[in-house]
Specification:
Blueprint lengths: L1 H23 L2 H35 L3 H39 L7 E13 L4 E5 L12 E4 L2 E9 L4 E5 L6 E6 L6 E5 L9 E7 L11 E5 L11 E10 L6 E6 L9 E7 L4
Antiparallel strand pairs: 1-2, 1-12, 2-5, 3-4, 3-12, 4-5, 6-7, 6-9, 7-8, 8-11, 9-10, 10-11
């Protein structure tokens, strides 16, 4: 009987010894082992991403010429719309520059955009993260803002040689300064707990009492430019509800985010351009 009890408890004894040894390992060695393991694992995920793109390529090769022609026609229409939007954007930028010169307003730092493919998504209720296929090899740094056509995606929290981790604005770990479109007063924006397959939402706090928002009359929310991470005016979402906070000094409410955040395939990282 005693040998049988010893055999039953042996896995727990081994586990306890492993935990004890790990606790005694210096922090520097733990960090080094974590980075080494990630760098070893990253090529596997990146290779899987390339294989998915190759699969999509051969899937398109199997389509009929009629389907490809129709897709080309649709793409031509989209390209024409973007060309027109680019012309309008250039005109508006010129007008903004004239107003800044006239009013002697400070010019915000310029950024260059680094496009990156999404490798993996971790969109559970607690961790809202993306892994992108760019890293220090392309000049990415921790804290760099990440955007897409619908506005802000998040900011980079970890950078490795060929990949980077992005904390999304849907994560309750991310907090930033925001403001209502057309109103310069800063408020606090924070991601929420977003279950899988649900429309992403976030929360706002410290909203002035004279601001209102309802589902019938929502208000656009943008970055305020405070904090030095996100440029001013990037779209965050739409505030659909505001209620007085318990202290009665401010309001708090819900922000509806872009549903495309759950299915992004490509993003852009904003990297500040160093002045000459």
């Amino acid at each position: 009987m005693p040998p049988e009890r010893f055999d039953t408890s042996r896995p727990f004894i081994t586990l306890g010894l492993v935990v004890l040894v790990w606790l005694l390992v210096p922090t520097v060695l733990k960090r080094w082992s974590k980075i080494s393991f990630y760098e070893l694992q990253a090529p596997v995920e990146v290779s899987a991403s390339y294989l998915r793109e190759l699969q999509d390529y051969w899937a398109w090769r199997s389509r009929s010429k009629t389907d490809i022609y129709n897709a080309y026609q649709d793409l031509a229409g989209v390209a024409a719309q973007y060309a027109h939007a680019a012309e309008e954007n250039a005109t508006l930028r010129s007008e903004v520059q004239k107003l800044e010169d006239l009013l002697r307003l400070p010019t915000f730092a310029d950024y260059r955009s680094e496009a990156a493919r999404v490798v993996t998504r971790d969109l559970n209720s607690w961790w809202q993260r993306l892994t992108i296929r760019k890293g220090t090899n392309h000049g990415l740094t921790v804290g760099a803002p990440v955007i897409f056509s619908g506005g802000v995606v998040g900011r980079i929290s970890e950078v490795h040689a060929s990949t980077a981790i992005v904390d999304m604005i849907t994560s309750n770990r991310l907090r930033l300064a925001a403001s209502f479109e057309g109103d310069d007063r800063p408020i606090s924006f924070q991601g929420g707990i977003n279950p899988p397959l649900s429309r992403p939402e976030a929360t706002v706090e410290f909203v002035p009492l004279d601001l209102y928002a309802t589902p019938a009359d929502p208000k656009a929310l943008v970055t305020s430019g405070l904090g030095g991470v996100f440029p001013r005016g990037l779209r965050l979402g739409t505030v659909i509800q505001l209620d007085p906070s318990p202290d009665g000094l401010f309001k708090s409410g819900r922000v509806r985010l872009d549903p495309r955040l759950n299915k992004l395939t490509e993003v852009a990282v904003l990297i500040p351009i160093e002045p000459l």
